[in-house]
């Protein structure tokens, strides 16, 4: 048994070590281009509220938040709080205002991925997906229709006071059609880059999977991330991605290698970069101040 395990590990290591460095470098590039686009989208939403923050600080906040998301249970349980505290400290934006901006950009983000979610549900749901679909639509519609009430509730929860002018700008966000369209396009480009990253990683192992199949696998990966309750989705995302790849006929050894490389880019390396930003940009003090509140 030990000999079989050692042989399998040797095989996996041989496959991983044979991965093309060119495609791996491009996969890293697509990941961090996505982070910059996240920052641009957040900046546009803040500008719509009448607030401004340097793009550099927003990108730093996002990178540091990725690390916090990867080490705290449940998706975004610590990262989003750190983002709010970061812009509050660095750009003097009230926590409640930054919270609303993050909720709003996340709400817009659901629009371009909603059709993709339906596709994923049709592939991977053993039950009837319609109730979940209707529940998702109802939740988004409720936030959109009752946006004013939602804003006031958010500000009350974060004990933040805003001026009348700021309140008017926050509640008028949904009427800014140009901003919303640009934010949706940016969100769509982020998802396309995620698909491209997975395509590049499979190409690093000599696979030439159709883009349609890569898209479905990426959707499944997104769904596993949404249901994950462990820090950074450890265990759940890896198992789900390996299972999905083998379901579509990818040999186990290659499926494991693709998963390890993808998670190295999206989890291990991103955590190290986020930790470096946290340690060198005053993020530790911001996090301690947040925990003390």
UniProtKB/TrEMBL annotation:
InterPro entries: L-PG_synthase/AglD. It is found in: Cell membrane. It comes from Thermococcus pacificus. Keywords: Cell membrane, Membrane, Transmembrane, Transmembrane helix. GO terms for cellular component: plasma membrane. The chain crosses the membrane at residues 20-40, 132-155, 176-193, 205-229, 241-261, 267-287. It holds the Pfam family LPG_synthase_TM. This is TIGR00374 family protein. It is a multi-pass membrane protein. Belongs to the UPF0104 family.
